[in-house]
Amino acid sequence: MKLELNYLETEGNSAGFWLLLGVLGILIAIGLGATYYMEHHGHHVTGMNNQIVWGMPHVFAIFLIVAASGALNVASIGTVFGKPLYKPLGRLSGLLAIALLIGGLMVLVLDLGHPDRLIVAMTYYNFKSIFAWNIILYNGFLAITIVYLWFMMERKMEKYYRSAGIVAFVWRLILTTGTGSIFGFLVARQAYDAAILAPMFVIMSFAYGLAFFILVLFASYSWTNRPLGDAIVTRLKNLLGVFVAAVIYIIAVYHIANLYATEHHAVERFILMDGGIYTTLFWVFNIGLGCLLPLILLYHPTISKSRGAISAACVLIIMGGFAHLYVLLIGGQAFPLTMFPGYEVSSSFSDGVINSYSPTIWEIALGIAGIAVTLLLVTICVRVLRFLPETLADSAIDPHAK
Amino acid sequence: MAEINKDLDQGRRSFLGSAGTATAAATIAPGVFLTAPAAAKPADQAVSSDNRWGILIDTQRCADGCNDCVSACEDENGWGQANTSEEHSNELQKSQWIRKVSLKEKTTGHVTSLPVMCQHCETAPCVDVCPTGASFRRDDGIVLVDKHICIGCRYCMMACPYKARSFIHEDLKDQKPWAPRGKGTVESCTLCVHRVDEGGTPACVEACTAENHEAMTFGDLNDENSIISRQLKEFGGKEIRADLGLNTGVRYRGL
Amino acid sequence: MSQRSLISKAALFLAAMVTGLPMLAHAGEVPYPTIIEPDQHFSADQECVLPEDEMRRNHMELILHQRDKTVHNGVRTREHSFEECINCHAIKGDDGEYLRVESPKHFCASCHNYAAVKIDCFQCHADVPVRPSKQHNQRSQLKHHDTLRTEKNLSSQTLKLLSTKGKL
Question: First CA to last CA across chain C, in angstroms?
Fold first, then answer.
């Protein structure tokens, strides 16, 4: 029995709606102002330096890009794998994927030393660079997802939307592999240069993208007083739990493999034991609060029935994602290059010492503006176009509901 | 004979003089003469892979407190002490093209000192990762940043195994015309390409030789009769992080 | 609604006045930038590397292509050296010091400020002369680069020079 679903724009007149737009707009304005300040004065106003070359903006940008790829999962499960309960969520999933990617790319581009040379980046390509490939993959993803959304929303194109869905699914796996390879291809640093980083990023994208999606779904439905049934919510939260377990698995494999080789003992000791903030972020915020506690919240028989608990789990997973990326990105740069194994090294250029990084308000403001851009895009689009089904109550979407 | 600018002539004479000294110091046996100083190609001719420029550093002749090569590079290329306009950047943000590194072997306690700069690798990771191709390797082996197309993404800095690259964190003034450098781009040792193209030697090597430390030799690795090639053949030359298989142009003795 | 169309028409009229009137007032006068010409020539028979009109229109093309030849191929002729452009076109101020690019009378700034075309050359390049010009197209005094490798190919001049230094 084919279920008839009515997609409807959200209202756009309430004080809450305008307040939301206002707050997001202010956050974006602050972020753009911070960007102007950084670009005008040069990066000396940031906490980044010649030892820690990528900082907070990159943590935010990579989180958003990874989450973008994962957010499309929900649509893929509906389209490519044909699960009926996910199909109503396809449009929101595509929209969120595009919005997250745009937010992430904005942060990445605005942090460049020469953002005015973006045209150069789009016209001169070094095809041996994974970065160059990523530029093509990211823009391609935007185009493909827009086409996918169009096919989903246009009745005449309905018969093609499965092909678009398959293309989008494969493309985003390649894209996320490319994002992980940014680090995986770096032979220079002890914490990188591991092929496992590519699939690790794919698995991270599943978890963080879905967590973000669930939060946006909850907010969209509760703030517009539309019904959201338990059938969907239960499926989504169970899936999220599986993804979080997968994240724990792949992080474990990465570290255990490193620990096996004496060559990597120093960097593992740094991250897992001696690294101060990196160690805390890893064990407490990434593993503990970001993975284990959410698993309890998502699978405990009584607690997991509460939407508040599920929301909390999603927030914790996202926070854990930021912690993971911070440890990977910043921690990986904080640990010195091993240029002379077996030697104690010192120089005027911070050789042989743990590098330190204190993010400044400018970088954090830029990162937050990226998230605000994502949320603003989603808010405006669900108001203007028909992304959200009028109801996701069990009776409307679940063919087996009583 | 064409008219020669007096300053240029003076420069050439003193260069030939010091090159002669270096040549004598490196003469293996009496009467067996090594080679002429690096010949300048005509200015309108492109460089080719017939040459591959490199430096050989003898770490045993390199003194721990000596910074002559660093100071010479600063003066020549206008960074560090030689450029006061880099005033807002903190110590970790200031550029450094070449640095002296002190090593102490953990098991034996043996102490060594050596200068580290861009190693001008044959398969440079920085060249591989640059999205726009701004980081590139010239035909004659010198690895450079084309700052016209550098977008300042700093990926090359992440990729460099030697931490050779620096990012410029503020507006600069009073750059040397032969070594342009500016905000928002990445830079590193250029092997004094402006000098090499005119038949000269990098400033670091020149300073080391002028002070008679003789820890650094510059030359054409593709020319088996050049001083550097003969020294490499006799004494060997290790790469830092040789396991990466990058085939660097800068080699070290005594490591 | 007639009130709305009236307001929009009034707005359009005002916009036209604000932008159009100044043009009407200055009809016939086209302001030119004040460009201070250099007091040296490139060579005895050439003022600049290309004729003035061509330079005005196409100097950007020249810069864009020549810089690749210099940076990527090591071609460093005086004719296409940016440093030499600055050496010729540098202007001294009243205090006897060379004008920096921030001054509106700097050669490049004088036209670029007028045309409102922002240039980022001087973010990296020196905007004033630092060392003397090379007076001629630089050509090596020694032979072609790959012939001087072994003793038997050394020119007698070089051998003599080195032997007088007592090094042979």
Answer: 101
The number of residues making up chain C comes to 168
Tens digits of residue pLDDT in B196-223: 999 999 999 999 999 999 999 999 999 9
pLDDT at A327 over 50: yes
The angle subtended at Cα A66 by Cα A64 and Cα A70, nearest 5°, is 110
Query: Which residues of B are less than 8 Å from A188 in CB distance?
Result: 125, 158-161
pTM confidence score: 0.87
Query: CB distance from A118 to chain B under 8 Å?
Result: yes
**ipTM (interface pTM):** 0.93
What residues of chain B, 61 to 120, have a C-beta less than 8 Å from chain C? none
Q: Which of the other chains make 3 or more beta carbon contacts under 8 angstroms with chain C?
A: B
Chain C contact present for B20, CB below 8 A: yes
- Residue A360 contacts B, CB cutoff 8 Å: no
What is the DSSP annotation of C16-80?
A: HHHHHHHHHHTTT-------PPPSS-SSSS-SSSS-HHHHHHHHHHHHHHHHHHHHHH----GGG
For residue B182, which residues of chain C lie inside 8 Å, CB to CB?
A: 120, 123-125
- Rounded to a whole number of angstroms, the distance from the CA of A31 to the nearest CA of chain B is 19
Report the pLDDT value the prediction gives residue B12, as an integer from 0 to 100: 56
Q: Is the pLDDT of residue B34 over 70?
A: no
The whole-angstrom separation of Cα A339 and Cα A352 is: 9
Q: How far apart are alpha carbons A282 and A268 in whole angstroms?
A: 12
Triad C135, C67, B153: Cα angle to 5°: 140
Which residues fall within 8 angstroms of residue B138, CB to CB, at 6 or more apart?
B47, B144, B193, C72, C73, C74
CA A105, CA A376: separation in Å to the nearest integer?
15
Interval B104-158: pLDDT, tens? 999 999 999 999 999 999 999 999 999 999 999 999 999 999 999 999 999 999 9
CB-CB neighbors (< 8 A) of C84 in chain B: none
Inter-chain residue contact C75 with B36, CB threshold 8 Å = no
Q: Does A296 touch chain B (CB under 8 A)?
A: no
For residue A70, what pLDDT is reported?
Answer: 96
Partner residue facing B17 (CB), from C134, C158, C165: C165
Whether A42 and B184 have beta carbons less than 8 Å apart is answered as: yes
Distance from CA of B10 to the nearest CA of C (A): 13
- Is the Cβ–Cβ distance between B243 and B123 less than 8 Å? no
Residue B214: which residues within 8 A CB-CB, separation 6 or more? Answer: B22, B25, B58, B61, B208
User: Chain A 143-182, CB below 8 Å of chain B: which residues?
Assistant: 182
Cα(B39)–Cα(A145) distance, integer angstroms:
58
